[in-house]
Amino acid sequence: xxxxxxxxxxxxxxGLVLIVMMSLxxxxxxxxxxxxxxxxxxGYSFLTDRPPDRGRIANKVDANRLMxxxxxxxxxxxxxxxxxxxxxxxxxxxxxxxxx
Length: 100
What we know:
This protein has helices spanning 6-24, 63-83; strands at 27-31, 38-44, 58-61.
């Protein structure tokens, strides 16, 4: 059974909170013509509240940028998880090397 230390729990919880927040407030991209790609960044807005069109045809969630953000958070979270593996544990003295 894997036992997580306090710092690892904080790292994992922080990564999870960031993923949830990025999902609730995704990046949006402007669509200039039907079927066309992005016409430029339209900012961040709540998932159910699209940013104003401002003369564009429509705005849609920028899935590519969102996936890059997810990937960055996962990489940093996994790295932080493994880097903090030895932190927050009390020393039980089993690694004590003393010459007598």
